[in-house]
Amino acid sequence: MEENKSLKEELQKLRLKVYGIKPSRKKRKDSDSDAEESKDNKKHGPPFGHEGRARKRPARVDRTVVLRFESCPECGGDLSELQEPRVRYTEDIAPAELFVTEHIIKQGYCPACRKIVYPDVPETIGNRHFGVNFLLYITYLRYTMNLPYNKMVQLLNDTYQAGVSEGTLVDYIKLAAQVFGPEYERIKHDMQRQKNCHYDDTGQRVDGENRWLWVFINKEAVLYHTSRNRGKKVVIEILGEDYDGCTVQDFYPSYDGAPGVKQKCWSHLIKDARELAGKKNPPPKAKEFHEGLQALYHDAKEDVKDLTSVGVRRKVYRQFVKRLKDFAKTYLNGHCDVKRLAKRTLKYRHEMFTFILEPGVEPTNNVAERALRPCVVQRKISGCHRTPEGAENRDIIMSVMGTMHLQEKDYFEAGKEYLLNTLT
């Protein structure tokens, strides 16, 4: 047994050497128990001797309280005050309450126009009772803090004594989506002009039926879109049939005919290989395949850091495509599960190293995965959408909020400015 194990290790080293792959520095644990034991023995918290961290001193002081003893609390004797006092800061939450404004609207009659005139009330939403800040706050609670409507009602009534119902909140969410609608369309239009774009989708239930929630994201904007379709038609609808930028996505076959130059996600491929190699009884050569993929990926990421000219990028791209092709071919006659991953690797080999050709393109689709995660959390908390309008409202509001976040804008400041400009 020991001899066979030694021969297998030597064979793996030769394979890695032949295909120009550097061996992984990480050693795999021999058993799950060893991994658990190592995890238990690991010290929790920061390492010994690390730099200490503490909360920074507040930049603003709202109230100053001077504390002193007139006499010694122990014996009652006189005290001689020391020159340097001891200073301590405490931070607390101020009691919250609604801010009520009474507007005295002076009216006047114009004989020339023959009508009564009066000024508009600032920072209000038509004749509605609650103002702009309230609308922004409930959208924040709903789509950033992921609170369901019943919890939002409880928070507002317990904290602010607002006296609102779920119907009131739903009505204001509809209004927010209506006001932010033009901004959503602008984001969709700008998405077609961006050079790079990540997209992904996840399932959801809308009005008792299966739907797909899509996300399209780049460095400047994010767009959410609910659709009945999971295929390339949605990509064409959002990005346009003539889109010539670079897109990053996973290996779903329907993406193959979508517009744009493609970069397939390395994380998806390596994850599938890792799960196959991590089985209790992994297929033959599954571990070798996983380690080989990881090594190729890390080599490509290291080499791309030093590339500058277009010619050199193309040359390195061709080299890595050939290495991946030769590597995958050696596993086509193995176990069916390993063969399946090898065939996928071989099929998409030209789309695995686009990040070498195109500066600024990422080799993984983690950006889109992270953008979808809040929606998945909402789905687990609140369940499905009762109506298609509810899903559309979510798409509009989250797209606007997410775009402001990517552009490092404060949602409450930028959102208020947009609402006031739109409503006036």
- Count of alpha and pi helical runs: 14
* Structure classification: alpha/beta
Assess the beta-strand content as a share of residues: 5-15%
How are the strands ordered across the major sheet? 5-4-3-6-7
Described by strand count, sense and barrel closure, the largest sheet is: 5 strands, mixed
What order do the SSEs take from the amino end to the carboxyl end, as H and E?
A: HHEEHHHEEEHEEHHHHHHHH
Q: Count every beta strand, where a strand is a DSSP E run of 2 or more residues.
A: 7
| Proportion of helical residues | 40-55%
Judging from the principal axes of the Cα atoms, what is the shape? Answer: extended
Average pLDDT number: 89
Span between termini: 81 Å
From the alpha-carbon coordinates, what is the Rg to the nearest angstrom? 30 Å
Low-confidence stretches: 27-31
Task: Note down, in words, how this protein is organized.
This protein has 424 residues and is an alpha/beta fold. The chain has 14 helices and 7 strands. It has helices at 2-18, 32-41, 132-143, 149-160, 166-191, 232-239, 266-277, 286-304, 310-329, 336-347, 354-357, 366-382, 388-406, 411-423; strands spanning 108-110, 115-117, 196-206, 209-217, 222-227, 246-249, 261-264. Strand 4 and strand 5 (222-227) form a beta hairpin. Helix 5 (166-191) crosses helix 13 and helix 9 (310-329) runs antiparallel to helix 10 (336-347).
